[in-house]
Predict the 3D structure of the following.
Amino acid sequence: MRSAPSVSYPVGRSRFCVLVTVALCGAGVAMLALWAWLGPSPGVRQAVAAVVLLACGGFAWQGVRRQPIGTLAWDGERWRWGEADPARGVPDARAGQDAQEVQVALVADLQRVMLLRLQGTRVARAPATWIWVEQGVDTEDWQAVRRAVYFRAGRHAQSHSHDGAAAANQ
């Protein structure tokens, strides 16, 4: 199997993630309002639900604001992630000198948006970084990024199937 082409892709704050967060918070507010309107007179239960909804919305919004911004680069052999300064916004398409090698796992593919989990290779117990990669950021390199993600996933699955077959033959 040939390698996927090298590509660097800028990763910014995800509009998709913002829309999903706003939609879920809006649905929560609508359900709470419906419960207060159709149920018995508003009381302690509705007040507690409102506080919980407000807290969950606050945590969700903090998660949206703290989305990693950087450059994801595939060199044909390995992935690199270079984090950018959040104040700058979306980074340019060049991976920085301080980029670290990562393993990339595809979590969700929605065709124009992918959720990826990045795990550093240097520190085994380091927490994973979750990023939303969107087509709208760099439409020219979108297909190259998708090919690289799927190439790596297919290669990883092949190595595990070969390891399993070798173990079964012994």
